[in-house]
Amino acid sequence: MADNAALAGRYAVVGVGETGLGKAPAGATALSLQCRAARLAMVEAGLAPADIDGVFAHWDDRANALLVSEYLDIHPRYVDNTVVGGQSNITHLLHAMAAIEAGLCEVALVTYGSTQHLDKSRARGGIVQDPRSPMGQFATPYGMLNPVGYYAMLAQLYSSRFGCVPEQLGEVALAARRWAQLNPNAARREPLTMEDYLASPVIADPLRKLDICQINDGAGAMILTSAGRAADLAQKPVSIRGFGDTYRHHMTPLGSEDWLDNGALREIADDALAMARLDRQDIDVVQIYDAFTINVLVALEGLGFCEPGGAGTFVGGGRIAPGGTFPLNTSGGGLSFNHSGQFGMQLMIEAVRQLRGECDARQVPDARTCLVQAGGMVMSAYMVMILGTD
Fold first, then answer.
1. Quick one: pLDDT at residue 136?
2. Which of these, 121, 360, 375, 150, lies nearest to 252 by C-alpha position?
3. Could you tell me which residues come within 8 angstroms of residue 154 by beta carbon, excluding any fewer than 6 positions away?
4. Nearest Cα to 173, choosing from 344, 374, 373, 335?
5. Using 50, 70 and 90 to split pLDDT, how confident is the model at 287?
């Protein structure tokens, strides 16, 4: 277990911004969208570009914090372009905390943006692979849908081991849609029934179309600084109370590792909760990276909210939907709200807004703590972060 206890509550998110959700305007770029989101976050925090001295930025397979800095007329002392898949934005928050601890910067801007829908750069099979890469040589030529195929294999393994039925995956999709219906920025808000879910076409057995996240445009930004500095800014700070992360491999989880029981999520969840001095029952809201419905079932078990094989029953009866006892993915998630390629940013922004009480019809009453779980690449990287308000 990593000893990060001294960092608990020392840093806070003080501003967030989103733009270009769904389908971005014609002519928009990943760079322009994330810089607009950054300006919104700065205005919200009461900061100017001159106040920012650390920039952490990337988008899809391109990464350049210097471009973001130039666009915004920021002259940072520290930059970071780390890309580890969908959780990269949250990894950037940890890197920003480390940089501030080391005295390399004081106020960090984290941005992400994508125009994958506008550009039609992502399709059912995922992104184009370099034929010289391991994936390009040993997976893509044989027809593997990436990442859909791997998560279909995960779902098959889960079903074989625990007897999961389609309706249990469907409960995740239906709950996400009910939350999205309360979110005016969601891409999919039309009613969804279990009959609709079961009638949706199978893309990679057993995953149906409605088991798979949206392909959207969008950009987001977060500003992080020390708790001391945060107290003087315009927005109510949301503290980072605990975290845990681990990085296992690049893309393909081959070898002897058990896809369902590698212990990664339980270990880092325990680390994050211990750091935050909280128990699982103390968490008011949970945000799980739902690129696929199976991710939610596997994560609920891995995080320790239910026993192995118990997630299908756990999510039943509207438990994770609006009005249920376990509020999960309150924006509508990647399944119905927005999935612009690397969803960690949107998970974090929703968590911050829930804890600031800004979510209107979908607001979880008296939300004071939120657990965010995100992954990277294909079961490659794992992140748990716990946020709270004092």
1. 81
2. 150
3. 259, 260, 294, 298, 379
4. 335
5. very high
- Convert 142-156 to b/e letters by CB count within 10 Å (16 or more is b): eebbbbbbbbbbbbb
Q: Do 387 and 351 touch, CB atoms closer than 8 A?
A: yes
Question: pLDDT tens digit string along 204-233?
Answer: 999 999 999 999 999 999 999 999 999 999
For residues 177 and 321, what is the distance between their CA atoms, to the nearest angstrom?
9
How does strand 217-226 pair with strand 369-376? unpaired
Averaged pLDDT of the chain: 93
Bridge partners of 123? Answer: 126
SS3 assignment, position 213: coil
* pTM beyond 0.85, yes or no: yes
User: In this predicted model, which residue has the larger pLDDT, 131 or 192?
Assistant: 192
> Which amino acid appears at position 172 of this protein?
V
Q: Is the pLDDT of residue 33 over 80?
A: yes
What secondary structure letter does DSSP report for 126? Answer: B
Per-residue pLDDT tens over the stretch 147-174: 899 999 999 999 999 999 999 999 999 9
Task: Return the number of other C-beta atoms located less than 10 Å from residue 336's C-beta.
Answer: 29
Q: Indicate whether 126 pLDDT > 60.
A: no
With b for 16 or more beta-carbon neighbours within 10 A and e for fewer, the 171-182 pattern comes to: bbbbbbbbbbbb
Torsion sign, CA atoms 52, 54, 57, 63: positive
CB 109 within 8 A of CB 78: no
CA 195 to chain CA mean position, Å: 28
Is the distance from CB of 291 to CB of 141 less than 8 angstroms? no
Q: Return d(Cα 103, Cα 115) in angstroms, integer.
A: 35
